[in-house]
Amino acid sequence: MLLEAVYHRPKLNWCYAYDGRTIHLRIRTKRNDVTAVSALAGDKYIWDQSKAYVPMSKLASDELFDYWECEIVPEYRRLKYGFLLESGQEKFWMTEYDFLKQPPANPDRLFEYPFINPVDVFQTPSWVKDAVFYQIFPERFANGDPSNDPKGTLPWGGIPERDNFFGGDIQGVIDHIDHLSKLGVNAIYFTPLFTATTNHKYDTEDYLQIDPQFGDIDTLKRLVNICHERGIRVLLDAVFNHSGRTFAPFVDLQKNGENSRYKDWFYIREFPIAVKDGIPTYDTFAFEPLMPKLNTDHPEVKEYLLKAAAYWIEEADIDGWRLDVANEVDHEFWREFRRVVKKLKPDAYILGEIWHESSPWLMGDQFDAVMNYPFTNAVLDFFVDGIGDAKDFANAIGKQFSRYPRQANEVAFNLLDSHDTARLLTKCDGNKDKMKLAALFQFTYTGTPCIYYGDEIGMTGGHDPDCRKCMEWDEEKQDLELFAFYQNLIAVRLKYRALRTGKLTFLSAEADSTSLVYTREDEDNLFVIMMNNSALPAEIEVPVKESRWENIYTKVTTVVKSNKLAAQLPAYGCAMFRAIKS
């Protein structure tokens, strides 16, 4: 047994309260090195009467490690615990201090979860587990009110550039809300709606005003009310890392320099503010001089931004915030932000834009979730770009899943493209079957999936600005077969809870293979999903215990022989089976 590979620490994703009564324990071991793990757990004050061994099961694996997990509901909301590691006849007990060859004589040096204090439990909004998001870039979705078009607005459907406008607005979303209801989505994520100079609006001028080219607060209220009547939640985008060049305090700073009362609202390295050799003399987003970084530790800045965060929940009844460049803002600001938002709307969804491992933001005091780009990268590598084999893919998914507590995984924002990336169909070189495989995994994985506007009708586009084309509303130019595919995918996901929060197990994910088989299972349903990520047909067969299976797509019932479930899959084909329990 390679003890150097064994890892556990209290709190974070290794020992945490899932709810007010339940504790999840996890431990890491070298892959395929340990045959069984148990938690030795009990109450520290009545150890001899309460101690027991709780079997742990494999939560996930990656290329190096296995991750084990168990769930314990302690009677008195506290836990003393260690681990028993077994490999054949070899046994070790792990305490907080040592590895022992005999059971620990007393609990003094075991790990401890002192007490489940309700206020410390990381609670995420339950509705997000059942959400299917649809991302809208407002300027390019639909022009519902030509009277508010900015000067120089171009005819709908032209070539998108970084600085042109086509007149998309909030009324346009209202006019096409039936499209979203027909598709089946139940949540919308809008890129910024607030006053700004650009078409993308990430250079905020006024955090308390809807940009006039999109409408006004009454238009937004009307949209939110319509969405809520249809069971659709609304998530707005906030840019608190930086403002725009026309933000009033920055305008004052440009005018008055060191004498500006707002100079400490920003991070100025040198006066007068200027750009020298392409580098501003003040901190910005990237090196963009038009997006000065805000000092979110400054009391007045904090007060202003938190006022904005509260205002749109109070006034427009929005359901949460997506937070731009979230990892460049100080943690203490986000802690205060969470307190403000959750006080007003306890089930508001707080989503941070972070492209990397994000544990420091997912400890229950800041975000509910982050945009799950490690998931995105894993899916695109395997299904789209052909990087790695099925084993590599399963390892990448296992590694990412093991990083966060379950409640964060359940509401992770799983996207495959966005306004910041090339479109999914373009990444697939127009191969719809590849696109469907990637989307199928996205919609049968834990977390909330998001569709980028237009993907459902076959829109294409390279990197920004090409991915920000005007939505195609001419049905003769829409891919209605693809729309029906997404429609069905959403309906199946929403029908079966196992596809949203059930346990995922890879049944077949081998090295040098492009075939993938995994299960999603809860107490009500068991699914086996088969994928042939290859340009050649394939026959896939896996062992199963159940005898009768329903093909979700064809509705045909199969009775298996010799406990083998098999399917002939075409190139880039898939099959989804549900066990019919007797």
Automatic annotation (TrEMBL):
All residue ranges annotated as the Glycosyl hydrolase family 13 catalytic domain in the record: 135-493
Keyword Hydrolase found: yes
SMART domains per UniProt: Aamy
Family statement: Belongs to the glycosyl hydrolase 13 family.
The entry's keywords: Glycosidase, Hydrolase
Organism placement in taxonomy: Bacteria, Bacillati, Bacillota, Bacilli, Bacillales
Domain of life: Bacteria
Pfam assignment, any one: Alpha-amylase
Name of the protein: Alpha-glycosidase
Positions in coiled-coil regions: none
